[in-house]
Amino acid sequence: MSKKELLEVLKKRFSENKNRHSNIEFNDVLKKLESASESIINSLIMMEETGGMPDVVFYDKDKNEYHFMDCSSESPIGRRSFCYDNEALESRKVNKPVNSAVEMAKKMGVSLLNEKEYRYLQTLGDFDLKTSSWIKTPENIRKLGGALFCDKRYDTVFLYHNGAESYYGARGFRTLLII
Fold it and tell me: Which residues are within 8 A (CB) of 97 and not within 5 positions of it... i.e. 6 or more apart?
């Protein structure tokens, strides 16, 4: 996908989902994107190509930063069946997944959503009604072998735990990119 194609996709998504950014003008976002580094554009392209459907969800006026999050209705299809991090991946002796959420996010140049960010995303729509998404796990939980994930069921956002080495076809991860 080229930068031009990405900008067209983002513009269309932006106009079709005004509820996510009611006080933001796309021309302002476009100016920021046009001056963004190649690595930022590549990160957005990877978010798009793995099924994340990135969209602007917040503007920080003090820092002049736009926050893009994955807004696909379900956990991005190209980022599912991953364990939590590289340590968990290496600990698996049999049936290893192809990657981990944390490692892939690093390669993409983005970060996993934390619980607060995930809950904010859920105020903008209904996400992960059939899937779940790994979220950034506090170090004290991770040191004990666990990792956190969220989903939305019964009109409620739920936070769960699992062994970091676990992976499921319906669990992926959502990301944040600040520009």
Answer: 81, 82, 83, 89, 167
Of 11, 40, 25, nearest to 109 (Cα)?
A: 40
Closest CA to 173 of 113, 97, 123, 95: 113
177: nearest Cα among 44, 35, 31: 44
What Rg value do the Cα atoms of the chain yield, rounded? 16
Kindly state the helix (H) or strand (E) to which residue 69 belongs, with its residue range: strand 65-70
Chain-centroid distance of CA 111 in Å reads 7
Q: How far apart are CA 146 and CA 154, in angstroms?
A: 25
pLDDT tens digits for range 103-156:
999 999 999 999 999 999 999 999 999 999 999 999 999 999 999 999 999 999
Dihedral-angle region of residue 125 (phi above 0 means left; psi in -120 to 50 means alpha; beta otherwise): left
pTM for the complete prediction?
0.94
Residue type at 47 in one-letter notation:
M
